[in-house]
Design goal:
The complex is a heterodimer.
Chain A lengths: L2 H7 L1 H21 L8 E8 L2 E8 L9 E5 L5 E6 L5 E5 L6 E7 L3 E7 L1 H25 L13 H7 L3 H26 L6 H32 L1
Antiparallel strand pairs in A: 1-2, 2-5, 3-4, 3-6, 6-7
Chain B lengths: L9 H20 L6 H14 L3 E2 L6 E2 L3 H8 L3 H16 L7 H19 L9 H29 L4 H33 L1 H6 L8
Antiparallel strand pairs in B: 1-2
Helix pairs in contact in B: 1-4, 1-5, 2-3, 2-4, 3-5, 3-6, 4-5, 5-6, 6-7
The chains are: A alpha+beta, B mainly alpha.
Amino acid sequence: MHQCTLHSFNVTRSRAWIICLISVVLSLACFNVPAWAHKVTIFAWVEGDIVHTQSKFSGGKRAQDSTVVVYDKEGNQLLEGKTNENGEFSFKVPKKTELKVVLKASMGHLAEWTIPAEEITAAGDITQTIGPEAGTQAPAQEVAPPVDAKASGEAPERSTIGLSREEIKGLIDDSLDRKLAPITNMLADSQDHGPTVSEVIGGIGYIFGLVGVGLYFRNRQRQEAQGRS
Amino acid sequence: MHISEGVLSPGVLIAGAGLTAAGVAIGLRKLDNEEIPAMGILSAAFFVASLVHVPAGPASVHLVLNGLLGLILGWKAFPAILVALGLQALLFQFGGLTSLGVNTLNMALPAVGCYYLFGWAVRPGVKVPVFTVAAFACGAFAVLISGVMVGFSLYLTGEAFLPAAKLVVAAHVPVMLIEGGLTLACALFLRRVKPELLEGQYAPMHSS
């Protein structure tokens, strides 16, 4: 009943109002591109037998002093810890199965990351698979104690003869960990992708589309009612 | 402010969803054709507001704008917030689909509450000082009550209430001030440009 009157008495004003609000919404969407909010993420990777985790809010702020809980595949809690001021928490692999790392940040934020069993066993198995092989080769090389050769005084002679498999493996692992560190960090950072502009615009589009659908059905009801009367 | 999936117990989730459904039903029953566009625009504003980041406190907080929605929409804030939160959950992974009911309740109920508490004073006819204070308080208190409700939801799931609520409220103090200012600015703007929007709510029930 009052649609027509309301519309006619103030068409230009309400149009200006709507355009104003739309532009406010869109400008909010645009100027804030780098500062996204409100989600936590956790990223975990294995180095040797240590699991490192990094947690942050999606604004890029590190989740400090948040609880990290580690579960095994069956959901048994294995250990619990707190993140430091950089949002990092590291722990020794407690069990060689799939591990689920759950971050419980304040105010009901929760995130989880699963480390597949292969990743952990790959790191843990080094000593197991190398062990026997090194043992079979040991007689040929006469001595191959598992202790670090550099620690003992024999290092100079032995380095020319050759390093044991275990030592080579250790050196390669160390070097790989060092070289891959920037890449793991990059991966950790890339876990944190905030909403993109297209998602934001898409969401606004959805809402306006719903408005259209709502108006369409309301209008149809009204027209049908008018047609009947 | 958004509670993630898997934090709350099923009971809390179901209760939240039920209450939200009731709120949405009330909102839709009061909905009038005239108000659909305004509702859509405010819903879009709410949707985008959570991307505006306030770097304060130990966690990350963002604008909520529920006070503004409550002020203009009253009960209709429920459907508007539900739509916006649903899209945030789907597109941004803020909150989650299972916690959608609780999250909507936590943000929409304070909006409606502030509408009843302060709405009477945010009318074109009211004197400017009273109008100013009420509009500011509406924006600020909506966020505060939301924070307390988030704390309460966590408490129902077994977290200690006081630390959780204190943390949420403390983190939102800067947001409260900003929201109060923003709601005030919007209300003053509407008072000048489109006073019907502030008036419409307080007219006797619309014939729907």
